[in-house]
Write a structure and sequence with these properties.
disordered N terminus, about 60% strand, about 80 residues
């Protein structure tokens, strides 16, 4: 796990993963997805802010991991497709 990054399961297990980037610099990072996401090949990325949620796009899952670049303070929801 990356320091200053929070990862938590959402209310619906196995469907959502929330990531919040708390540091001051943008940075690319690869996160390992939960073991029960085996077989998931694509995830949907949704930006979450005080103004609401906005679909960003999708990301490919490789070897059970997803690579994202988050801006400082950016929060996203990752949904298995």
């Amino acid at each position: 796990m990356w320091p200053n990054t929070k990862v938590s399961d959402a209310a619906e297990p196995h469907s959502l993963l929330r990531l919040v980037r708390l540091e001051f610099l943008s940075h690319a990072k690869t996160w390992k997805l939960p073991a029960d996401w085996t077989g998931v090949r694509t995830v949907q990325i949704t930006n979450v802010s005080v103004d609401g949620a906005a679909l960003v796009g999708t990301a490919e899952v490789k070897d059970g991991e997803v690579a994202l670049t988050l801006a400082p303070g950016q929060a996203v929801v990752i949904t298995a497709q």
